[in-house]
Predict the 3D structure of the following.
Amino acid sequence: MELGLVGLGKMGGNMRERIRRAGHTVVGFSHEADAADVHSLKDLVDTLAAPRVVWLMVPAGGATQSTVDELAELLSPGDVVVDGGNSRWTDDARHAEQLAAKGIGFVDCGVSGGVWGLENGYALMYGGDAEHVAKVQPVFDALKPAGDFGAVHAGKVGAGHFAKMVHNGIEYAMMQAFAEGWELLEAVDEVTDVRAVFRSWQEGTVIRSWLLDLAVRALEEDEHLAQLKGYAADSGEGRWTVEAAIDNAVPLPAITASLFARFSSRQDDSPQMKMVAALRNQFGGHAVESK
């Protein structure tokens, strides 16, 4: 099938390549001219045959809204827009309603996989009407990991981004647990090789995971994370997860504490935040601050 892809950054560029490897045609547009296949959104829409599917991988908020606004005027009834960025789930209903007034479908899709997705595949969580999802299904199949899992039609419009938001909240708490354990191991004289301890956990333990593998990888690059500043940003989804928990009276003590721990990293050079920063860099290519 043909796909229009708007946004060709760290995620979008690799997604374009993976979809092409699966035999589909991808027409990419980016404000970075070197990466783009066409010069404008209008060129992208004109290049695709109807009914069109246009997938957005642009920053949440104003950038997504302005792109939806422009596509609403360019696309035709029967086309579908997929928001694969990290939009807040509460924005999805508004985008769906805006596009539905023009006869255009809307699917929200949470995407996880970071810089590793090109080779390993992307975990996909999508929401929307079944008829709209069906039009995008060949792309979902191309992007997902091999095997039976890694993709889910999570429910109505908004469900995909809500599921991805909760995923990221869990990720916050898991990274915080690894970071706290690492700092404690580093603090005692009795443990002489913390890196080897982390390596040993990769087999036979209940905490073995890809996140643990990435922690080991970070320690192999910088054994004591001495080159990193103890500062870790938050993408916003951790905050949204806590806010949703408050709205629904669901207790999230671990996720909430992990979010607040990141805030504390902006006041002190936190050893734990060195590990969190290293993990975010490993899986997502997120920027780190060096000493």
